[in-house]
Every structure is written in structure tokens, then in C-alpha cells.
Amino acid sequence: MTHTSESVNETERLAIDSVPTGLFIGGVWRETAARLPVEDPATGRVLCEVADASPADGLDALTAAADAQAGWASAAPRERSDLLMRAYRLLLAETERLALIMTLEMGKPLSEARGEIAYAAEFFRWFAEEAVRLDGGYMPAPAGGSRFLITRQPVGPSLLITPWNFPLAMGTRKIGPALAAGCTCVVKPAEQTPLSMLALAEILVRAGLPAGVVNVVTTSDPAALMTPMILDERSRKLSFTGSTAVGKILLEQCARTVMRTSMELGGNAPFVVFEDADLDEAVEGLLAAKMRNIGQTCTAANRILVQRSVIDDFARRLTERMAALPMGRGTEPDAVVGPLIDTDAVTKVTELVADAKQRGATVLLGGESADRPGNFYPATVLTGVPDEAAMCHTEIFGPVAALTAFDTEAEAVERANDTPYGLIGYVYTESLRRGLRVSEALETGLVGLNQGVISNPAAPFGGVKESGLGREGGFTGIDEFLETKYIGVKI
């Protein structure tokens, strides 16, 4: 492993050194000649280097998963459940180490990283409980003479592709149900944030993971690595979290073998504030929905629609709160606004803000790149953002709140739905009737009604339209890794 000594202090270096840096294939850590540097987005310095897998390495990982599939599928549900529960406890026990690793490679403040560890662990606990509750059915045929026996079986070897913004939780959200259902898997973490997943693999080994059940391959060239595995008929499931553009490419590839897919793709979340809303609660909800993970989430409030009679008051309160958020490296005790993931992210946000200003938006806070090292962009509030602004049609993925006024409920719903995306929407109103009416009218898979963060392992997560297919979490999350089989029994 290669380190840049001046990039980290002793505590940080110990955390990084605790992470294996090879490929994890068939229960063995494997090194590669090619190496992938992992950078600290707050400084741009290299933290370490990890293995850079080739397509051949990927196929080896798939072979390991395929070879282990029958044994894992036949394992008792309680055995699978116990493994996940042991991993759950280990994750919680190592919260501080894992949170520091996550903050160093991804940038989010330590307080948020700790929260993600708890969130990630909860997926293992939830699906440990689901593993022993897989059901089926038995009934007489309507015409008599036979019985219908319905059972559910694991789909088979699964390919899991995770994003950089939640490098641990998005892994456990996929690995948990896969293992609970009896599926083996190959995990490909994002190239920017491989350390959290490698650390998780080591924890799973300590929890008693059988060889080949979970394999982890890191790479600088995801398309070259994944394409042969996707086209290989031994792969029976793909679960992907990432951009809609990449998701469409993967769906085309999966169609060649009619592979089962789950897709959690991009969003363009409306955040609707009606004039009867509790404005203080709405501001706090928006801060949670907008600033979580420095705005780099698919559930981030993207288009903030505020009823005209209260938009000035709302904008003033929001600006005061946003201005008070300290910016800094995620390891700094008070930091709330950490760095964006890379320079491309800063460039994108800068260009989106410049476009909005050019089209007539007013800057109430921020609006210019931060004058400091690292991939920082300051908390920004814009008002009067026109619908034709680019940021109204693409995920901002940064700490920028874009406000626009509306007049009527019908207008708010129409504008909220005027997007090809449909992951989540937010509604703030004190009227129960209006809240339910608008929530049901929104073309989204998720709605936060007077709540800025609603993700929960016990609830189904997923979108409609171009925001995805399938659901993760909740009672339906394990269904994505199970096939239903009907057995007709003659009596």
C-alpha cells in the first residue's frame, strides 16, 4: 500500500492501514500489478492505493460466486440470519474507525459518517430478521384434483454496483437481502470510495462469511470490468445505484440474458412549501433534505417550490441558517459543509449556479467557488430560479438551494411532476387533506410529508419513471433476490 505521509495524521493513517487493499475473491485477498489511488477530496492528496481489477479478475470473482452459490442457497435460513447479525454487531462496535475511513475517502463530516454506519448496520439487522421469514403458499386447485405449492428460491449469483456518496450503506442495502435470500454476490464499489467496502468485506470475514459468498472487486475502469460479468449467463441479478444514463446502458446489457435488475437511479426532487406550513419546520426539513452529505444524494431537494405569499420569509430564514453552517474538512469537529467528491463535481455546481444567475436568479448567499484548497463549494441560496435554468432539470449534487415561487396547489403539483425523474418529493403543509392529496398526486416512489429525511431500512426505497426499477429495504427488499416457483401436485 502506498501512502502520502503528509496527507494524514497518525490516527488517520492507522485507520487507513487497517483496510485491506487487494481484491477479495473466493475468500482470499488478491493483489494486482495495477493500482488505483484513493484521494482525500478535502485536500486532493492520495490516501492510499488499492488493487485495480482487470476483466479477468472480475470473471474470477464471478466464478467464485457461482461455485459458492449452491452451498449458500442450501444453508439454513437461521445460519444466514446469524451471519448478518454478527456483522451488524461488528459494524456498530467499529463505528469510529469506519466513520473516519469514510470521511477521509468521501469527505462527509464525521457526524454524518457515524450516522451512515448506524444506517448501514441496520440493513444487516433488518434482513437478518427477514431471512427466517421467507414464506410461500399452499392451496387446492379451483377445479380440484391437485394442489398448488408455491415456494421462493434465490435468484443466484448477483452483481452489486454501489455509489460513492453512501459507500457503506448502499453496500449493506444490497448485500443484506442478497445473503438473506441465499444469493452469492460480486460487489463493485465506486472507484472514488473503495475503502469502506473493503473494510466491510474484512468485517464479514470475521463474522464467519464462507469463501466465495461475497466478493469485492475495485477498479478504475468499471465498464471494462462489469461488461463481461453482465453478459456471462452465470450472473442472474444486477443491482445498481447510480446515474440514470449509466443505468440505461446496464439495462440494455442485462436484456441480452434477460437478467433480473434493480435500478436506483437519479432524481430531481421537488420540495413544496405551502403558505400554511410551519416555516421553521420547513426550513429545518429543507436543511436535512438539501445539506445531507453536502447535497450529494439522489434524495436531495433539488427544486424548492415555495408559495408566493411566504417565499420571502422562507428565503430569509433559510439564508440565515445556511450562512451559519461551517465549511471544512470532514474531520474538523464543527464542519457541516465538507468537500464535494472531486473537481468535476465542483465544476458542475459552479456552471449550474452561473447558468441560473445568467437567467435571472438572485444570489442570497454564496454563489461563487470557495477560495481554498480541496473540492469545496460554499452553502448557496438562490431565489427566483426560472424553470428553464439547467439546475431545474438535473441533479445539482451540491450545497445549493434553488427557490422558485408558485401560486396554487395545482401549479405546484404540475411543476413538481414536470420531470422525467420520480424518486422522491417533499411536501410541507399543516393541512392533512392537502398533504395527502398532494402526496398522492406526486409522481414519485417516495414522499416526505413534513419530514426532510425518510430513508429507513424497514421501508421500501425506490423511484418511478427514469428514477429506477424495483425497491430496496422494507418487506419487499428481499423479493428482488428471490424467484417464485410453482409446483403442481396431483392428489
UniProtKB/TrEMBL annotation:
InterPro entries in the cross-refs:
Ald_DH/histidinol_DH (IPR016161), Ald_DH_C (IPR016163), Ald_DH_CS_GLU (IPR029510), Ald_DH_N (IPR016162), Aldehyde_DH_dom (IPR015590), Aldehyde_DH_Superfamily (IPR050740)
Top enzyme class: oxidoreductase
Q: Which residues form the signal peptide?
A: none
Known CDD domains for this protein? Answer: ALDH_F5_SSADH_GabD
Per the UniProt entry, what are the Gene Ontology biological process annotations, in alphabetical order?
gamma-aminobutyric acid catabolic process
The residue ranges of the Aldehyde dehydrogenase domain are 30-487
List its EC numbers: 1.2.1.16
Q: Is Transcription regulation one of the keywords?
A: no
Keywords, comma-separated and alphabetical: Oxidoreductase
Q: Give a GO molecular function annotation for the protein.
A: succinate-semialdehyde dehydrogenase (NAD+) activity
**Catalytic residues, chain numbering:** E264
Similarity comment: Belongs to the aldehyde dehydrogenase family.
Q: What is this protein called?
A: Succinate-semialdehyde dehydrogenase
The scientific name of the source species is: Nocardia macrotermitis
Gene behind this protein: sad_1
